[in-house]
Each structure stands twice: as structure tokens, then as C-alpha cells.
Design a protein that fits this description.
Order of helices and strands: HHHHHHEHEEEHH
Shape: extended
Distance between the termini: 24 Å
Structural class: mainly alpha
Oligomer: single chain
Largest sheet: 2 strands, antiparallel
Strand content: 5-15%
């Protein structure tokens, strides 16, 4: 996190510690009624940035991901649909509007089953009204 924040040229926040402090000072605009705290960021300060601390969760995610196809076949699962910000996205990678930001769904199928994903997306689009564009996003010019 510090590496990422430290390379942001136009940000006054350059580290996780600075981000946590900025959120405290600007809590009214940074923290929402639904998520009024920054517990995970504060835990990140305690977590550290050692190689082992990074490799352990990566190894876990790879181990979980390695079993997805087997589990989906065993339980006759064609597709898994979950909120786009859930932990499932972590494993699959190894809408609604919230706070002016677009939030999506994660749809996952076994390997080489893209046709199932296309069917799910088509059914979803047919069942729901036209997507609402995130107004807050449209107010800002695109970065080129």
C-alpha cells in the first residue's frame, strides 16, 4: 500500500499511515454512514509489510482457487454470483450504486465455461431495468 500511495504524484497522502490520519481529519467526507470506520486500514498498519506477510495470503488464495473447478463439478454448480467487493474476487483473480460509485457483481464459472457466463449476463440484463450510470463518476473528466 505504501508503495502504491508513494507513487501517486498528485496525492498529498503518500502512505497508509497518512491515509488513516487523513480519514480521521476528514471523517465527514471520507467515511460513510454505512461504513463509519476504517478498521481494516488501521489493522493494515499493524500488519506490517514483510515478504512472509505478503506471501502467506497469496499462497492461501492460490490454494483455494486451485480447488474451484473440482468443487463446482462435485456440487454441480454452473455459476457463482457474488457482490463485486467480496473475497471471492480475490480467489477468482489468483449494479447497485453506493456512495456515488459503481458497484458490480462477480460472476464466476469453471474454466472454459465462458458460454455459461454469457447466458447469465444475458439473463441478468433481460431481468433488470436499464443500468443507471453513476452520476458522480460522470461529473469528472476522464484522465488521458
Amino acid at each position: 500500500m505504501d508503495n502504491y500511495l508513494g507513487h501517486l504524484e498528485q496525492s498529498k497522502v503518500q502512505s497508509l499511515e497518512e491515509l488513516v490520519e487523513w480519514n480521521k481529519v476528514h471523517a465527514k467526507e471520507a467515511l460513510t454512514d454505512e461504513y463509519p470506520n476504517q478498521i481494516l486500514l488501521e489493522q493494515g498498519l499493524e500488519f506490517g509489510d514483510s515478504v512472509e506477510a505478503r506471501e502467506r495470503p497469496q499462497a492461501h488464495a492460490k490454494a483455494v482457487a486451485a480447488n474451484f473447478d473440482e468443487l463446482m463439478e462435485k456440487y454441480n454448480i454452473d455459476v457463482i454470483i457474488a457482490p463485486g467487493d467480496c473475497m471471492l474476487s480475490t480467489y477468482s483473480a489468483a449494479g447497485d450504486d453506493f456512495n456515488g460509485r459503481p458497484v458490480g457483481l462477480l460472476v464466476m464459472a469453471p474454466r472454459h465455461k465462458e458460454s455459461v457466463l454469457i447466458k447469465v449476463m444475458s439473463a441478468w440484463e433481460a431481468a433488470h431495468s436499464t443500468r443507471k450510470h453513476p452520476e458522480e463518476f460522470l461529473k469528472h473528466p476522464t484522465v488521458s
